[in-house]
Design brief:
Shape: globular
CATH architecture of the domain at 7-91 and 221-247 and 264-408: 3-Layer(aba) Sandwich
CATH superfamily of the domain at 7-91 and 221-247 and 264-408: DD-peptidase/beta-lactamase superfamily
CATH topology of the domain at 7-91 and 221-247 and 264-408: Beta-lactamase
Number of strands: 23
Length: 508
């Protein structure tokens, strides 16, 4: 899946238990036969049953025109309401394609340049290293090569800091590797790209996307997820597994990282978006993005090795590159642009085949399911497959099986864990760090909790091995991180280390 989720996170997310078939062959498999409405419905209904997903919405664009949009299953297991082509789903990281489009729109308007240093647009911005501060630009952010450590910083979406405050705090993020050395998936980078576009336009990021993309394309069921989910009834709920069965779980709605994962849309609206991209930035005779802008979005910038979480037809022979907002690989001589997303109880994918003006959107309401990859592979093979080629579905199911087994594997504790050296009250107090700000540790119901940032975001802190505790934040996609406490000469707890950052007790 092109979400680029690190294996350490995958291992710890509870995905739920399913009874999967062992073969997973696609019924009526005919590579190269071409898609029609009947074959698309068969693929979608098969995948819904095969992957035990409550509901999915799928759109297909063919020859640069809307071809298919439909919903299957239910949008909410509690209510049983059906999914339609107009049901609104969280897009998760598919939002990143709109961040790239917003930057491209600002370039079209002459308000921004692809190579323009971010510091020229965001005066309070700085990276940890002076060289990166001087040169990092929107393209670097949009292809994950700014040097940020992978999957770091998403916590800022919950801590309650303002956008200007987060931009200022970026200077304290320790680099994960050298600037432009190689790509490492970063939501921080997309947040910053969105803020660059916002600063250039003199308007919030979501207003740029609304005025430059959604409104011109007539995408009336698209916008910021937190807004749409409070104003609309036809929305898809998030679902995750618990004790062998699925249940509705709270939606993880982005507060500030909108450009990275905070948008929502429907299959019918995404069809209009794919039509525009497939036609080089034009839709219905109206120019949305220039051909140069679309070329810049589609042009590979930096290569990456396919990871553990990529599904066929992505493999060691397909290649994998990043363009602004997308990943790129090859299948049967065709260049495929793809972007996937995952949030608590949600999976999404967007696929574009520019040479054929062909596109696919798949939205699913189950936690970390491979259904989007299965549907998109089935459609690609039926439309562009070659006679005699192997059905990709068994390989997709096998990889999904392996990930599922890893997800359910219990985390191993140390053989002989030591108890905490102090009573719980000794760990309480207020601690501070330049990057993350002020966190409080308190006792509640005979256990420790962390209360972080202006939003007073709560996380559970449990003993693990002596002075090492595990910190677990709320949410389905959440993995515990080590918190290691330090004492002074008088055996007083004076600081703790979390994610490689030292938090000092206030007053020390």
């Amino acid at each position: 899946m092109n979400t680029r989720i690190p294996l350490t996170i995958l291992l710890l997310v509870v995905g739920g238990t399913c009874n999967f078939s062992s073969a997973a062959e696609l019924p009526g498999y005919e590579p190269g036969a071409g898609v029609d409405e009947a074959s698309l419905e068969q693929i979608c209904r098969w995948a819904l049953e095969e992957y035990k997903v409550p509901g999915t919405a799928v759109a297909v664009v063919r020859d640069g025109k809307p071809f298919f949009a439909a919903g299957f299953g239910v949008r909410d297991l509690d209510s049983g309401e059906p999914v339609t082509e107009d049901t609104i789903f969280q897009l998760a990281s598919v939002s990143k394609t709109f961040a790239a489009a917003a930057v491209a729109a600002m370039v079209d308007e002459g308000k921004l340049q692809w190579e323009q240093p971010a510091a020229e647009v965001l005066p309070s911005f700085a990276m940890h290293e002076a060289y990166a501060t001087r040169w990092v630009n929107a393209r670097d952010f949009l292809v994950h090569r700014a040097g940020f450590p992978g999957f770091f910083g998403d916590l800022f979406d919950h801590l309650g800091y303002s956008r200007p405050d987060i931009i200022h705090r970026i200077r304290f993020v320790k680099p994960g590797y050298s600037f432009r050395d190689h790509p490492e998936y970063s939501n921080i980078g997309f947040f910053l790209a969105g803020e660059m576009a916002a600063a250039a336009a003199g308007a919030p990021f979501d207003e740029i996307v609304r005025s430059r993309i959604f409104e011109p394309l007539g995408m009336k069921r698209s916008g910021v997820a937190s807004v749409l989910f409070s104003d609309d009834d036809n929305i898809s709920r998030s679902h995750a597994g618990k004790e062998g069965s699925l249940r509705v779980v709270p939606s993880n709605l982005s507060a500030v990282f909108i450009a990275a994962g905070g948008l929502a849309s429907s299959a019918s609206d995404l069809s209009d978006y794919l039509v525009m991209l497939a036609n080089g930035g034009e839709s219905g005779g109206r120019r949305i993005l220039s051909p140069e802008a679309v070329h810049a979005i589609f042009e590979p910038v930096i290569a990456e090795e396919p990871g553990f979480a990529e599904f066929p037809p992505i493999d060691g022979n397909s290649g994998f590159d990043y363009t602004p907002g997308w990943g790129v690989y090859h299948y049967n001589g065709l260049r495929i642009l793809e972007k996937g997303g995952a949030l608590d109880g949600i999976r999404t994918i967007l696929v574009l085949v520019p040479q054929k003006k062909f596109g696919i959107a798949v939205l699913a309401n189950r936690n970390l399911t491979a259904l989007p990859e299965a549907i998109r592979a089935a459609i690609l093979q039926r439309e562009f497959g070659r006679d005699g080629e192997e059905d990709l579905q068994p390989a997709i199911r096998e990889k999904s099986h392996k990930i599922e087994e890893l997800l359910l594997a219990p985390q191993e504790r140390p053989e002989n864990p030591a108890p905490p050296a102090h009573p719980l009250e000794a760990y309480t107090g207020v601690f501070t760090n330049d990057l993350f700000g002020q966190w409080e540790i308190a006792v509640k119901d005979a256990a420790l909790e962390v209360i972080a940032g202006p939003a007073r975001y709560h996380g559970a802190l449990t003993p693990w091995d002596g002075e090492v505790f595990h910190l677990l934040w709320p949410g389905v996609i959440s993995a515990p991180v080590d918190v290691r406490f330090a004492v002074d000469d008088r055996k007083r707890i004076v600081s703790f280390d979390c994610m490689g950052y030292e938090f000092r007790r206030v007053g020390e």
